[in-house]
Design brief:
Elements (H helix, E strand, L loop, with lengths): L4 H23 L3 E2 L1 H6 L5 E15 L4 E7 L5 E7 L11 E9 L2 E10 L18
Parallel strand pairs: 1-2, 4-6
Antiparallel strand pairs: 2-3, 2-5, 3-4, 5-6
Length: 132
């Protein structure tokens, strides 16, 4: 009995697709609130919120940056990030900290920064400026 090539190709393609989906689901990290982060023991959580700018403190000797952020429910979290300071942190309005909770502190190993000036449209050449 000979199995047609199309059947073998279909089986291989299906197995490959299952493998890709399994890898994707295994590596996906959810966006969580502060309350959800406190309940989780994962280290790949995405905590998104508004940066409280006046709370930013940097310690160049240890490489720690600490700040507070407010999630979508209004709950405030203390965040500690270890790494190089993102260049646009002072202009940021929103932050996504990737990491996990350690007692009452969210320890981040990655920061994703949203800076509003980066997304504002610039006047095109010859167009009148409509600034404030």
């Amino acid at each position: 009995m000979r199995i047609p090539g199309a059947v073998i190709t279909s089986i291989v393609a299906t197995l490959a697709m299952v493998g890709v989906l399994t890898a994707f689901v295994g590596n996906a990290s959810p966006y969580v609130t502060v309350a959800e982060a406190k309940q989780s023991h994962d280290d790949g959580l995405h905590l998104a919120g508004d940066l409280i700018k006046e709370s930013i403190q940097t310690d160049p000797s240890s490489g720690h940056i600490s700040f507070r952020m407010k999630d979508k429910t209004g709950t405030v979290a203390n965040v500690v990030y270890t790494g190089s300071t993102p260049g646009n942190l002072a202009e940021a309005t929103k932050v996504v900290a990737v990491g996990g909770m350690d007692h009452d502190v969210f320890k981040a190993h990655q920061l994703l920064i949203k800076c509003p000036s980066k997304y504002e449209s610039q006047p095109t050449a010859g167009a009148p400026y409509k600034g404030a």
